[in-house]
């Protein structure tokens, strides 16, 4: 596992050094933006050049997939009776079982099924209890709430993070 590099805390920095560092930051940011813009233009050009070829290959791939799938479905009993996959020269084809999921019958909604299960088989109904964080945050300034929150074992905190917002000039 890679070790984290220790970050040294800098102190006693003059206004001049800070302004030089901010200028270097802005210059590096502008260069990065320009390089990324140039790359985007080149990628777009290349994508446009290859669009027809890619579309043709995608259609070819889709047609071939449909053909192989049709073969597999036609020969499911003979080719896939013992194993779910068959190894061939250019790859393996086969069938996978999906993840089991619950599907409601026609005429039933999930809410209706939940109500029925609540009456007939309550062990299949989940009841979740969770904090109403939004309400606790909204009520934090109410009188006596700070003391109550300590009793409840919670507190409202806000982290402060440093940021740099560069002034960007647009060239039009």
Can you walk through the features of this model?
The protein has about 170 residues and is mostly helical. The protein has a domain at about 15-135. Helices cover about 50% and strands about 5% of the residues. The protein contains five helices and two strands, in the order ααββααα. It has a two-stranded antiparallel sheet. Strand 1 and strand 2 (about 90-95) form a beta hairpin. It is flat, with a radius of gyration of 31 Å. The two termini are about 50 Å apart. The mean pLDDT is about 90.
Query: What percentage of the residues does DSSP assign to strands (E)?
Result: under 5%
> Over all CA atoms, what is the radius of gyration?
31 Å
Number of strand elements? 2
**pLDDT < 50 runs, ≥5 residues:** none
Overall 3D form: flat
How many H/I helices? 5
SSE string:
HHEEHHH
Structural class: mainly alpha
CA-CA gap between termini:
48 Å
Order of strands, main sheet, comes to: 1-2
Average pLDDT across residues? 91
Please outline the major beta sheet.
2 strands, antiparallel
**Helix share bin:** 40-55%
Question: What is shown here, in short?
Answer:
This protein is mainly α and 172 residues long. It has five helices and two strands; from the N terminus they run H-H-E-E-H-H-H. The protein has a domain at 15-133.
């Amino acid at each position: 596992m890679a070790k984290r590099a220790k970050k040294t805390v800098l102190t006693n920095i003059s206004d001049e050094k800070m302004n030089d560092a901010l200028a270097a930051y802005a210059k590096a940011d502008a260069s990065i933006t320009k390089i990324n813009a140039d790359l985007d233009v080149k990628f777009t050009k290349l994508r446009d050049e290859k669009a027809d070829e890619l579309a043709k290959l995608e259609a070819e791939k889709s047609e071939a997939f449909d053909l192989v799938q049709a073969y597999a479905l036609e020969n499911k009993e003979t080719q896939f009776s013992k194993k779910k996959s068959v190894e061939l020269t250019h790859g393996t084809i086969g069938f996978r079982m999906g993840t089991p999921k619950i599907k409601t019958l026609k005429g039933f909604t999930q809410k209706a099924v939940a109500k029925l299960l609540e009456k007939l088989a309550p062990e299949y109904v989940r009841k979740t209890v969770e904090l109403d964080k939004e309400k606790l945050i909204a009520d934090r300034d109410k009188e006596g709430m700070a003391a109550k929150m300590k009793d409840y074992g919670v507190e409202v905190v806000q982290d402060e993070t440093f940021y740099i917002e560069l002034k960007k000039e647009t060239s039009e």
